[in-house]
Amino acid sequence: MSEALDKLEQKQIQNKIEHETAIEQVKSTKRQKRELKRRKWVDWNTQDEQAGGTKRAAFDPANRVKRKKCAMLLSYCGAKYFGMQRNPGMQTIEEELFKAMLKHKWITEESFEAAQAACFQRAARTDKGVSAARQVCSIKLPDSVDIKALNEDLPEEIRVFGVERVTKGFNAKDQCNARTYTYTLPSVAFADCTEKHDFENYRTEAAHLEN
């Protein structure tokens, strides 16, 4: 009888410990969520400088730049790029675009590191060497943006032509209802391999193409 009571008491103690551990885990999760929410309102780079590197000063939410969903129209020549989508260690269209937008404060450092923070989406993802005449992207941007200044800091192969406000739920990929692709081949690809042609300019005679 005494042994059974001891086992029951030990089990109750174990259950109590497990219950307290579960409660502490829940509290820890809530603290982490509060910390993540607080970080969204803090500019760590400037606050560390103001606090002398010892204590982070509070950030005034009124100084935060409000950004709203926009549609961006751009074009690019992808001949020397490894596609549009960002890829670590590779030269891509989005990498150049995001670097320029960060420089002009169109996006935050958080958005530069994680594009989803700015709700970024492109209508179509192009591969290595592929160009786009009218690419549309959706992204959260400030109310006032200087397109001319941004283009001056973009490589000559990339140009932004317009930015327009759109509805909050707009998504360039999901709401794209058509995509047009054009495949361009050098005419020399149709040349007779037994004849001489102007391979330097990638051209062959029009008469040969007609035949």
UniProtKB/TrEMBL annotation:
InterPro entries: PsdUridine_synth_cat_dom_sf (IPR020103), PsdUridine_synth_TruA (IPR001406), TruA/RsuA/RluB/E/F_N (IPR020094). Keywords: Isomerase, tRNA processing. GO terms for molecular function: pseudouridine synthase activity; RNA binding. SUPFAM superfamilies: Pseudouridine synthase. It comes from the Eukaryota. It catalyses: a uridine in tRNA = a pseudouridine in tRNA. One of its GO terms (cellular component) is nucleus. GO terms for biological process: mRNA pseudouridine synthesis; tRNA pseudouridine synthesis. Belongs to the tRNA pseudouridine synthase TruA family. This is (Mediterranean fruit fly) hypothetical protein. It comes from Ceratitis capitata (Mediterranean fruit fly).
